[in-house]
Structures are given as C-alpha cells and as structure tokens.
C-alpha cells in the first residue's frame, strides 16, 4: 500500500529505554508495529542500547502507552525483535462489504463475508480487516483513505 511510517527517537522521559514518536506523511500516530520493530533493531545494531544480551527487553514510551520489545541476538548481532502492543486488540466496528470494497478500491464481489464480516480493529492504530476473494484481489487492492 506504500504506507510510509517514520519513527523519531528521543531520550526517555519516564525512565524507560527511549521515547518514540511515529509519523505518517500527514499525521502522528499513537502506535505502529513495523516502525517499533525497525527502530529497536536499528538502535541495537548501531550500539545505541548498550550491551544487548542473548534475549533483552527494552521499553519504548509512546503516545499509546509503553511498548515492550524483546530483542534477541546471535553472534553479537541482533537477529530478531518482537513487541507487545500497548493495548489489546479491540474490534471498533463492523463495516459493510460495500464500505470495505470502497476502502480497498475493489468490487463488493471481491470482499468475502462467509467467515466474518469486514471490521475495523485496533491495537492503538485502527486498521481494516477483510477477507478477499483471491490473491489477485489482494494484488489489486489500493487504499482509498477518503472513503474511511
């Protein structure tokens, strides 16, 4: 979807590892997974987190809350990061297949509802969950943010 997210790193304000603020090209977001994993991996790779053990937990302070991230290393290099979102998954609302199709620039026939209806969920940043008819529909999907 060509969705750009950029993380800015600051000294911690509440005694944790770092404060992190995440932005898209148009706004700040309270939380996003990929920028957190990338930021933790990069900071560990360049030595900004000090000595990293075989399995080390760090904590980022963010608008959505505290984000614990586990970093694992092998041969003195980070190889793996995993985070726990600051909030549990919550279902915000169910949306119609028509609305999901519009949001993804697809036809309503390409949105399946047999297993579950399309819905907006969140772990700090809302996202649309929808089952698509096939891989070709996934490849054609383009976000239509204005429709959301």
UniProtKB/TrEMBL annotation:
Organism encoding this protein: Pseudictyota dubia
InterPro entries: Phenazine_PhzF-like (IPR003719)
Single GO molecular function: isomerase activity
Top-rank taxon: Eukaryota
Pfam families for this protein: PhzC-PhzF
Gene Ontology cellular component annotations, sorted alphabetically: cytoplasm
PANTHER family, per database record: ANTISENSE-ENHANCING SEQUENCE 1, PHENAZINE BIOSYNTHESIS PROTEIN
Protein name: PhzF family phenazine biosynthesis protein
């Amino acid at each position: 979807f060509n969705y750009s997210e950029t993380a800015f790193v600051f000294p911690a304000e509440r005694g944790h590892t770092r404060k992190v603020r995440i932005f898209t090209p148009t706004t700040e977001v309270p939380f996003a997974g990929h920028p957190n994993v990338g930021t933790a991996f990069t900071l560990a790779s360049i030595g900004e987190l000090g000595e990293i053990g075989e399995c080390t937990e760090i904590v980022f302070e963010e608008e959505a809350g505290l984000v614990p991230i586990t970093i694992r290393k092998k041969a003195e290099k980070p190889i793996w990061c995993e985070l726990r979102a600051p909030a549990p998954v919550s279902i915000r609302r169910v949306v119609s297949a028509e609305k999901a199709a519009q949001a993804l620039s697809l036809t309503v026939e390409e949105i399946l509802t047999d297993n579950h209806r399309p819905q907006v969920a969140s772990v700090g940043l809302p996202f649309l969950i929808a089952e698509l008819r096939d891989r070709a529909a996934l490849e054609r999907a383009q976000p239509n943010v204005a429709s959301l």
